[in-house]
Protein 1
Amino acid sequence: MNYFYDRNNIEVGLDECARGVLLGRIYAAAVIFPYEFNNNKLDKLIVDSKKLSKKKRLLLYDYIKERSIDYAISWIDEKEIDEKGIQYCNMKVFHDCLNKLKKKPTFILVDGTQFKKYNDIPHLCVKKGDSKYKSIAAASVLAKVEHDNYIDELCKSNSDLLKYDLLNNMGYGTKKHIESIKLHGFCKYHRLSYKIKSLNKNVYNK
């Protein structure tokens, strides 16, 4: 994995979590790392969050925040996603993160294939970027931990949500989650603009 794309720039890595979930917020994070890495065990451990256990993600979460020059985290809820669409919200949550940074980047590395230009700062979209650049991988860890913490807190304050198996699926459309929707209908946190082929129209009216 590369540490940087171009050391002559102040690079920020961007990634999101929960774009494809059926319920709740989308999260994004931005991370600017220093030019020199310690090349220690924790630095080497920073990879795509999907390849890490929950225990390792939590360990890296604090380390990344301490290690970075600057970082930012942002989210958008399901109501705005339903109103404006996931693509719009995905770009907005990226821009929100960049707006929060105190250290202004001169180059943006983005996970994925789409990005809306930000303040005339050059950017590069990188397919599977969280497996190619440390800053994007670090952003994926921050966004994933924040999202999963949000789901945990949501279930603690709304125990009825446990019927959707959220603590295991984190809002994604697993078989058990979809079967629970068929049985109980949607709750107020579901993204009603998302169409699930295996569900009939009656479910959407509950």
Protein 2
Amino acid sequence: MSGITDSVTSAAAPASANSTAAVPNTLSANDFLQILVAEFQNQDPTSPTDPTQYASQMVEFSNLGQLQDINQTLQSDQTPQGGLMQAASAYIGRQVVAAGNTIGVQSGKATSIEYAPSSSDTYTANVYDSSGNQVDSVSLGQLPGGTLQNFTWNPSSSTPPGLYTVKIVNSSNVSLSGLLEQGVVSSVALASDGSVSLNIGNLVIPANQVASVAQPTSSN
């Protein structure tokens, strides 16, 4: 289903100002159901797919569909400023994910980083302040390759609010690529040029960089 996710995520991202495409390349709910049925019909009968995977795929598609609907509204040239702000407010209270390795600290709490180890190994999360000074090193233990992991830093009480950079390194001190910033939107802002930014706890993410949106988990 990674191909489906990539296609929908790509379609959900706002087009650039120079884009000449008249119709976005998107997947409808009917398209998704047809793909899901085909996947079910062509599974290996000796090793059938866990039914919970299908449920997870439907939830994932629903979350991406919500992002797509929000972004389509934000892209509309006919949307007045008030309507645009109302559409942007749909992000508030939602958990968003965007590419990056920055976390925001506010009121003693930090936003999260999602990552996928490239291979089974022991990993460490190194945290740096805005001046590049390492302020913490957190052992993540032995992790299996190819699994989605989440790192939420627990800053000390003396840690000032602000932005911090995270590097996830393996036992050879090689940094992982493809880190994702994650957090729950607390507020939105609308610039004079019509661009929308999302605040997830001292970390501001442009709405056009959001890769997925979902209801926050209980841990958040």
